[in-house]
Amino acid sequence: MGAIDAKGRLLIPAGFRDVIAARGGGRTLKLGIGLANRRCLMGYSSDHADRLKSEYDARHGASISTQALAELGTLFASTQTFAIDDAGRIVLPPGLKRAGALVGPVLFLGMYDFFELWDPWTYLADPALQDGQRWLVEGELEAKGLPLERPA
Asked: Is residue 98 part of a domain?
């Protein structure tokens, strides 16, 4: 679990940076809004962006249907590219912080080809969350000395 500092910087954990670099992203990270209306951010390397584009093209081709445009907005228009600095940080802009409801602590969840960044209490509020996932996040909060309920 990380945190956004007073200057809006977020340290990307070393393991996530290593995967991004190994997948050809070097020190470049792409972040966009979460899929399926999830109140989080989605992060990935440039090679995953290429796969997303190929899959989009296979589904929609040159279509400008309402569904195709909505998907374009989620997958590409909301995505920004960030250079990871020498300390392993990026600066999150206000729009992405708001989209992901990110203010302080940030939960990083690996999702195979991409990862998600969550406000931990927003994540815990999901009624579909499995018990095992809940226990892991609660353990992370406890380890950081943070309350299990959202602070007032």
From this structure: yes
**CA–CA distance, 93 with 45 (Å, rounded to integer):** 19
Q: How far apart are CA 118 and CA 3, in angstroms?
A: 11
pTM for this model (two decimals): 0.86
Structural domain including 111 reads: 2-143
| Residue 152 Cα distances to 51, 109, 147, angstroms | 41, 25, 11
In a domain, 150, yes or no: no
Q: Which residue, among 118, 32, 20, 113, has the nearest Cα to 72 in the 3D structure?
A: 32
In tens, the pLDDT along 77-127 reads 788 999 999 999 999 999 999 999 999 999 999 888 889 999 999 999 999
Number of domains observed in the structure of the chain: 1
In degrees rounded to 5, what are phi and psi of residue 115? -135, 160
CATH of the domain at 32: 3.40.1550.20
Q: Which of 24, 40, 58 is nearest to 111 (CA)?
A: 40
pLDDT of 45: 83
Asked whether residue 151 is assigned to any structural domain, the reply reads no
